Amino acid sequence: MNDELNSLKRYDRVLFAIISDVDEKVFSSYLSESESSTPQILLNSLKDKLPATGLYTEIMKERDFLLAVESVNSNGKLQGYSLVGISFTDLNSDLGVIQWISALVAFFGMASGVLIFVISTRRIVNPLLELKDTAEHVCNSNFEDGQDYSIKIKSNDEIGALSTAFNLMFT
Predict the structure, then answer these.
(1) DSSP states along 86-139
(2) Dihedrals phi, psi of 11, to nearest 5 degrees
(3) What is the distance between the alpha carbons of residues 20 and 27, in angstroms, rounded to a whole number?
(4) How far apart are CA 83 and CA 123, in angstroms?
(5) How far apart are CA 149 and CA 169, in angstroms?
(6) Cβ distance 73 to 96 under 8 Å?
(7) Please, what is the Cα angle at 130 between 125 and 133, to 5 degrees?
(8) 52: Cβ–Cβ under 8 A, 6 or more apart, which residues?
(9) Rounded (10°) angle between helices 88-139 and 158-169
(10) Of 32, 25, 28, nearest to 50 (Cα)?
(11) What SS3 state is found at 45?
């Protein structure tokens, strides 16, 4: 059991891990270098947090850690507890990094969305404006001036079909 607890040393966020029996006596423990209490004192200070069954978690703001306590049951009988404390301060700094990354992703996502919108809008609006201008010019002309009224829009969509039909009217 101590091997499992000692393997927690590689996680610098883990402040402590304690396994106790049903009488709340420490069976096995791991304390990080930053934790100043002894396992038994720590267990006694968290005595009111020990659940009869299941898992209990709480953010211990006064000591800046996240506490996770699970009761260990066998055949429906309480055998003991396992407690883990994780540094809340380190989690906050990680959340800050995640928030910055999320903000950057959101910004670049919105910027690329705006760019795609502008390009798409121009591809639709500019040919329609050309059609409108040519139609207005045709309305104000007498057709005897020999002017070329054709529209030079080449696309395979509805706007291209409209410009082709418009050009056919003047050929």
Answers:
(1) EEHHHHHHHHHHHHHHHHHHHHHHHHHHHHHHHHHHHHHHHHHHHHHHHHHHHH
(2) -100, 105
(3) 5
(4) 62
(5) 10
(6) no
(7) 120
(8) 71, 78
(9) 10
(10) 25
(11) helix
**Closest by alpha carbon to 46, among 33, 57, 30?**
57
Report angle CA 15, 20, 21 to the nearest 5 degrees: 175
Contact between 19 and 82 under an 8 Å Cβ cutoff? The reply is yes
Residue 85 CA to residue 75 CA, distance in Å, equals: 27
How many Cα atoms are found within 13 Å in the side-chain-facing hemisphere of 96?
A: 6
Strand 14-21 versus strand 77-87 pairing type: antiparallel
β-bridge partners, 31: 16
6-58 confidence digits (pLDDT tens): 666 667 778 888 888 888 888 787 777 777 777 888 888 887 887 777 788 87
Report if pTM > 0.90.
no
Structure tokens of 71? 């009761």
- Looking at residue 104, what is its pLDDT? 96
Among candidates 148, 152, 153, which has minimal Cα distance to 170?
148
User: Which residue's entry shows tokens 């009988």?
Assistant: 77
Q: Rounded to an integer, what distance in angstroms lies between the CA atom of residue 44 and that of residue 58? A: 16
**Is residue 84 within 8 Å of residue 16, measured between CB atoms?**
yes
Tokens 């100043």 belong to which residue? 36
